[in-house]
Design a protein that fits this description.
There is one protein chain. The chain is an alpha+beta fold.
Amino acid sequence: MKLLEALRLALSILWANRLRSVLTILGNVVAVGSVVAVVAIIEGFNTYVSDKILSTGSHVFSITKFGFTTDSETWLKMLRRRNLTIDDADALARQMRHALAVVPVVSRRENLKLGRDEARGAAVVGLGDGYPELRTLEIEAGRHLGRDDVQGRASVAVIGEQIREKLFGALDPIGRDLRVGRHRFTVVGVLKKRGSILGQSQDDVVLIPVTTYAKLFGSRDPIEINVRAISAESMQEAQDEAALIMKLRRGLNPWDEPDFDIATSEMYYALYENITRGIYGLTIGIVAISLLVGGIVIMNIMFVSVTERTREIGIRRALGAKRRDVVLQFLSESVALAVLGGLIGVLLGVAAALALRGATPLPATIRLWSVAVGLLLASSVGLFFGIQPAVKASRLVPVEALRHEV
């Protein structure tokens, strides 16, 4: 009952000093709001990125000219590496025993034209046959590119849903021609709608045979070779096998450092996780500073409150209140202040996450544990920084307190 009575009294005092209470809790509002909002945004990012990146398959890897680096010297070395070629992909396809599919991929941006209608800056992707086994690319109408298309350097194309809507409208695009840059292609298939990744549409795309791409656009664009291992268990063997074949083709010894890189979707995801860990670290710093500032403000306000209510404390002590009752009263006020700031911070954090989810394709996800951690931190700050003023109030001598003049 004493605790409930203390809380009721604390809330009535906070309500009586509303403006001062609001200004006091700003630090806690920022801290808890940051926790809730950042956790919601990063958790949403995690779900989004894992769905998009890891959906490419757990046993697919890429052989690329460039790898991950933040070192300018390493980057310059990568620039001097030889480009991968379609012949490299053909050699891997012939020699690898642990590969289910080997697909060279190269891309650029080109303008598309159909009559007077134009789609500017569409992604034109050159692909080897076998790409449907590598990535999730379902066909809405027509067919995929086939082996004959690749070997015969056919001028055929599979278009994304956005291109179909923009150029063909209600018309059936299958069998119709469109211009890719200065070159004419016949549409043989339409991909199912795939949506966007980080705001980048995956439907604004035209797929053509990689051999046709090389013939029409040259071989200066860097080729990436995607390999699907026959199983997740054989992933490492497939990577080792591919690395050995590539080294031998480039005149390197098996023990030499490769002049290419091998990357998996898990590596991309691990890189992303490192970035999010950095964001979490930054958030912890912001939260710590905000809580420290908020706690100091609460402590100062409570010292002021003790001074203002010295006579009240003296009257309570004279009427029989014990020191622990005074401590409980002032601790209740400081914790109530801090928790109130935490609750407002939760509301603002949730509102920020929902606003982001409404304005962008990112699925910000509210986590209950982040709300609980935020409120726990807020109440801990109120308890910790409220102890000293509460103890000071409890140590007042009743007679001297009654003589105090405000």
